[in-house]
């Protein structure tokens, strides 16, 4: 069942009913100010940090789901409703939400009145814009009352949920010329405030929640819109809100338009007050002036469109499969940009209060946006590497505001170092900027301990060699990519986090997955060393990789698939010898990516085992059989009910590794089938099962052992975005940057018969026309000339290169 | 305006409308299992720890206020409503909530059907009982569908608000014989589960929230009660709930009754499962069997009544002022027991996730319940003293489950040590148990560092002497009683807690308030030393007190009142020399209690200044004039808007110190007037202004500088309860325990002309009949004989002593 459709030309998803199976959201903002907005106008916005600078309140885990947001209420002759359906839930003659690139437009029509609200955050502006258009679609004049509503939060979202002894006493506002200023806590150590204004005269306002809603009322019972008049309330403690009242007289067919601005402002410490107790509002007035006319607003909206059109031009495909095209050209890249902006902080599943920037997450996210914003990727690499320790290990997370490592979580996730090499290699392949390797980068944010980025990579490379176990495989530490496989830090204390409990020493827990990563990523380190003229280091690295491949062959093979790990006691994990958890997905994908078993049949055998034991129509599960009993020595993984999360759920993040592995062994049909299983556009028709947005990936889908097999959770903020984009763009469509040229090596199902990829890189454009019959090993021509191999050399900036590939 | 009335005979407050100005709640439970229940059935319950063992979900700061709780829905021929009014908000023909001692009974009647729900936690049972009675009050037969509803929480309430990546995947239940078992996380390191059962056959059940409510619906839109049929849903992840469906056929006038049991159970680690994946439910079945018949439930309810009748017999008054009687005999003592049970953890203002047991809080709370449960007071004293450090300082808070000090908050609140002396002295006066002073008590919970409790008191006594400043006054540390006067740990970092930021060293910030405390409490230390035969120590202590009185006289007097403090820079706080914050309440009360200025007129002058500058009809404000500008060097206090909280709000906790001081100087009318200003029963008629419950104290009332002057916040969990009980029982009514006898020294307004206090102490009963004409200095007779002074010697256990006092 569908609840909307794609509008590819407009780069929008169009939701045509409020009754989606879950709130379907979008993100506003591209620089420092961001908003989350659902298809019924739920959500919140913040400046930089969703915990410390949240402007509006949002209640997770609420009844009803997704209550609260930016609500525009209409009183049309006593009939009170909202174009966003919620909160009134009045039937609409027409409902439509268009989620586009950095904006959403919600339109409702009822009783001969159309109301449309465009939400966006302009480029480089710290404000949400709510442009409201009212149109009288009836044949009689109308006098309409319009009420805005947002609920201010106290700006530390965690405190907002816990400290009522303080928070109910501090709320303060000012109202001036129809603009509502939220000034809570401004008097003390803060120098920021919020404003909610509108570019039209107001008939009244409210800033006290109880005055607007009526004490004890639900959103849909709000007394002010029902009475048709604001009370001009001034909040004193309790719950400051902002609501404007506007009156519109509309002839038949007539439209009117208002621009509401919800902004964040800062003042200098010595310029906080314009009079004792009166906030200096000059910055806010300047902001409001930028949106004084609706034409100014339109111009800012056009500028946002240009920003996104420009971004999305780096990689496009044109094929006969519109689902493929919309994933590649629009939504997968868009999601990659959102993960760049948000990391794992604020979504409808992540509260914005918890996780910082992950070393591992950020390094992988980078793979998905390096071609879009290479200069920002460079900055991100330096930030990440700065949280590395001298021994090559790294803080697992760092704080976005301070860019300092998170001591509470610490280090000891032994896959972390290798991801840095992968990210840096991707950046250099994209840009040719080898100079980044000479950048001096601190360890542990300590400038006195700075070393070249290349030295950082060396320590990353050496880390799994130095932390190797009895089988010559890398020690796993607290966990590797699988956060819930905690082989050294399981705990029997209820409620204690597995990941942060003490990391046991003297253990022998080894990760076959990290070994696979080492073999896949190590060659890039060797290549970088060679290109810097350090042939000895390159050969040392290549020998280490070869040794690791041998160690996996000798000690990481279970007979039909790769083992997952050895536990703290030296027992195998992921073996046919145990009842549950016999085969795990991660090493099957990454060991093949690491070139292990390509010659002796292990690679194909492992992938056949995946197909036989792990694959489902909804994606490839993480392990099989699901654990039905609790095994504390494995850590968190077995704490989940069968089929959910790491206990045999479908992790959309690691499916791509299997897909890439299938392209490596040349099985185009398998790869293509696996891709389509989890790609959201292909799941649109089963939205009632999938539940989360059909335009972006979710982190996970319930596995075959779960009651709710096929149901997705945790959409938007997941490394799934970047890995699937890498997979489809670089391996299925087969166009990937390398050091000296663009590799063109498609391996995609025969049903995608012909397609054209346009790739802008290093200032040139490549137009690659592929004639595909499935399989692998394309014959290439470049500007009409046949070439050997699969590498199209980089052309001079400004040139356009025409490539044909025939598979 | 009133929203109900007191029923003193039943010891109940009767709320007669759902439309109170705030949720008016009650507490269930007396041992380890507790519930909070509002007059419209909102709230939640927990076992011991409201953060780690919360059974049901509750949303603070919600729209609508107080949505969610234990809801019973009735479908009477298609008319769906609830006796608790919420969530349906259907008009009721009759509504009544009776909050009693450890129970609440909510009754609603509509369309000829009466539904009444009795909520209580039986003594020594880890369960909430919901006894539902349906009565057909119409003259026609009725077929009624009844649906229960509670929403399970994941038992770590903080995680429940933040970790959706995990929590939405782990929900599990079992249903067996009509009982619903919540088993989420049981599979892993927990061995506890919850059950919700009923003693009658069910027609169906639901355990999945979306199935019960319908996805996206509000509580009042729940599809199951509206459809009249359960769906027998079994939750798998997302939101486990419990709902039963019962069918009742009722002839005119007929009643039926059901007992629902919501319980907490634990199993031994090696006895968790009755079959693979099936929880061992033996303990739950045993619990349900205790409530298999409604007669069993009635018997348990009767037992609860006896428990409270017994508790409240220790101190009673009978006067012509029913408000005075109900405060003293019922509600103030009840609130003291609640503060004993809850400390500051779980109320409608405290989320149950944050604050542990306070060293200072608990020591003062003890003053209010030591006469009710002396054996528990003894245990509490040992717990508190065990968190003291060897230098006399103390952890400011400790964890209730582990009884260990809270490292995050640490120590350095320099009033803390003295409160321990006050609590121990109160305990010994009540019980005569001097042996407690010989108990070996650890420092910092380290048994190897144990010393006698008397040694702990010595270190408490010496602490302010050793930590004295340049004026010979005690250093204040992070803060004294006033949490927001942070003279050594103010911070300019936005969002950083004043209380926990680094405690600056080398400062000279001194507290006149702690000096007053020392002078008031020090004599008790001297008395204890003397009674143990250590005359030298007694004299040393008395000299130190005398010296401190002199230091206050020399350096703590501003001319018309006592100074509050010296700040970090040595500047005076609470002086006429500054624009704002000229006079503070705390030292005025406590210095007089400490005997300072009684002879030279300073005491009366200070109290006159309080009356002139701080008193209002709603109570005495904390300081005046309110600070209108931010002073970082004073800490948090000036961060509040004028009139709120510590910035010139009315703190009901410190008003009693002024009242006691007024009795010390013999001004009965002032004392009595101040008492009535804040005592909730006297504010019942202005409930629309006061807003919180008229039967218990709130922590604070907005002061005269606030927009909402007279509005209370933070009801229930406040040291206000114990201090007001101490004040009214020991100083106004004037009956207080001393080491050798009962002091009878009333000082109460003349309008309370005659009254009788009955006091049970040390096994004897004292019947004290007072004839009062205001003023002070009663003439006493004991069993008909005149005695000198005010001390009635303790009589032999079992005896009844008749005392008359004439003022």
Automatic annotation (TrEMBL), chains A, B:
Presence of the UniProt keyword Transferase in the record: yes
Domain Glycosyl hydrolase 94 catalytic residues, every copy: 307-734
All copies of domain Glycosyl hydrolase 94 supersandwich, residue ranges: 11-290
Single GO molecular function: glycosyltransferase activity
SUPFAM superfamilies the record matches: Galactose mutarotase-like, Six-hairpin glycosidases
GO biological processes: carbohydrate metabolic process
InterPro entries per record: 6-hairpin_glycosidase_sf (IPR008928), 6hp_glycosidase-like_sf (IPR012341), Gal_mutarotase_sf_dom (IPR011013), GH65_N (IPR037018), GH94_catalytic (IPR033432), GH94_Enzymes (IPR052047), GH94N_CBP (IPR037825), Glyco_hydrolase_94_b-supersand (IPR010383)
Keywords: Glycosyltransferase, Transferase
Protein name from the UniProt record: Glycosyl transferase
């Amino acid at each position: 069942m569908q609840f909307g459709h794609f509008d590819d030309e407009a780069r929008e998803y169009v939701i045509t009913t409020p009754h989606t199976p879950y709130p379907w959201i979008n993100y506003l903002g591209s620089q420092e100010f961001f908003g989350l907005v659902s298809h019924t106008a739920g959500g919140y916005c913040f400046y930089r940090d969703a915990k410390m600078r949240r402007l509006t309140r949002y209640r997770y885990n609420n009844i009803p789901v997704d209550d609260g947001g930016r609500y525009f209420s209409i009183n049309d002759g006593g009939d009170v409703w909202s174009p966003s359906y919620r909160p009134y839930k009045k039937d609409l003659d027409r409902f439509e939400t268009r989620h586009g690139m950095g904006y959403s437009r919600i339109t409702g029509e009822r009783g001969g009145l159309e109301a449309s609200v465009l939400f966006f955050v302009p480029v480089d502006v710290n404000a949400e814009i709510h442009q409201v258009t009212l149109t009288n679609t009836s044949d009689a004049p109308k006098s309409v009352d319009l009420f805005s509503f947002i609920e201010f939060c106290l700006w530390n979202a965690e405190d907002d949920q816990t400290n009522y002894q303080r928070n109910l006493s501090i709320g303060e506002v000012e109202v001036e010329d129809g603009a509502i200023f939220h000034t809570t806590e401004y008097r003390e150590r803060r120098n920021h405030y919020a404003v909610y204004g509108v570019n039209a005269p107001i008939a009244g306002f409210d800033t006290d929640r109880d005055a607007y809603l009526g004490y004890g009322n639900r959103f849909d019972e709000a007394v002010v819109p029902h009475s048709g008049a604001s009370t001009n309330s001034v909040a004193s403690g309790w719950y400051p809100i902002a609501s404007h009242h506007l009156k519109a007289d509309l002839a038949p067919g007539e439209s009117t338009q208002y621009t509401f601005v919800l902004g964040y402002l800062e003042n200098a410490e010595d310029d906080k007050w314009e009079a004792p107790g009166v906030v200096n509002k000059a910055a806010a007035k300047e902001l409001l002036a930028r949106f004084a006319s609706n034409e100014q607003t339109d111009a800012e909206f056009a500028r946002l469109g240009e920003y996104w059109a420009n971004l999305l031009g780096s990689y496009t495909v044109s094929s006969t499969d519109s689902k493929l095209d919309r994933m590649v050209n629009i939504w997968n890249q868009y999601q990659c940009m959102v993960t760049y902006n948000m990391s794992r902080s604020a979504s409808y599943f992540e509260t914005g209060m918890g996780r910082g920037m992950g070393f591992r997450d950020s390094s992988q996210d980078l793979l998905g946006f390096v071609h879009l914003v290479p200069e920002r990727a460079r900055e991100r690499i330096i930030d990440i590497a700065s949280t590395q320790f001298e021994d090559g290990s790294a803080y697992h997370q760092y704080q976005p505001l301070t860019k300092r490592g998170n001591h509470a979580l610490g280090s000891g996730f032994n896959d972390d170092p290798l991801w840095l090499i992968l990210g840096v290699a991707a950046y250099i392949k994209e840009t040719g900027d080898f100079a980044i390797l000479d950048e001096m980068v601190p360890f542990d944010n300590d400038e006195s301990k700075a070393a070249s980025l290349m030295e950082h990579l060396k320590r990353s490379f050496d880390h799994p060699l130095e932390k190797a176990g009895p089988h010559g495989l890398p020690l796993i530490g607290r966990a590797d990519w699988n956060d819930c496989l905690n082989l050294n830090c399981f705990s029997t204390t209820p409620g204690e986090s597995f990941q942060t409990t003490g990391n046991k020493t003297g253990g022998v827990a080894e990760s076959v997955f990290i070994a696979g990563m080492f073999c896949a990523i190590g060659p890039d380190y060797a290549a970088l060393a060679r290109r810097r003229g350090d042939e000895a280091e390159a050969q040392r690295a290549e020998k280490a990789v070869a040794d690791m491949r041998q160690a996996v062959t000798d000690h990481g093979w279970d007979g039909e698939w790769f083992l997952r790990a050895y536990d703290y006691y030296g027992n195998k994990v992921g073996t046919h010898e145990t009842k549950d958890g016999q085969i795990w997905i991660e090493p099957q994908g990454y060991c093949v990516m690491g070139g292990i078993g390509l010659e002796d049949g292990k690679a194909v055998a492992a992938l056949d085992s995946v197909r036989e034991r792990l694959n489902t129509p909804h994606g490839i599960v993480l392990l099989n059989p699901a654990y039905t009993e609790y095994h504390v020595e494995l850590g968190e993984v077995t704490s989940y009910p069968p089929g959910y999360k790491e206990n045999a759920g479908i992790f959309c993040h690691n499916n791509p590794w299997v897909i890439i592995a299938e392209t490596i062994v040349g099985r185009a049909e398998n790869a293509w089938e696996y891709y389509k299983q989890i790609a959201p556009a292909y799941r649109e028709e089963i939205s009632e099962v999938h539940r989360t947005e059909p335009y972006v990936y979710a982190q996970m889908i319930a596995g075959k052992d779960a009651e709710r097999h096929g149901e997705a959770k945790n959409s938007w903020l997941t490394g799934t975005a970047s890995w699937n984009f890498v997979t489809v763009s670089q391996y299925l469509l087969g166009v990937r940057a390398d050091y000296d040229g663009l590799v063109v090596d498609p391996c995609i199902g025969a049903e995608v018969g012909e397609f054209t990829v346009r790739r802008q890189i290093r200032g040139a454009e490549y137009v690659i026309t592929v004639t595909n019959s499935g399989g692998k090993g394309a014959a290439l021509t470049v500007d009409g000339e046949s070439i050997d191999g699969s590498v199209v050399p980089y052309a001079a900036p400004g040139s356009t290169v025409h490539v044909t590939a025939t598979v």
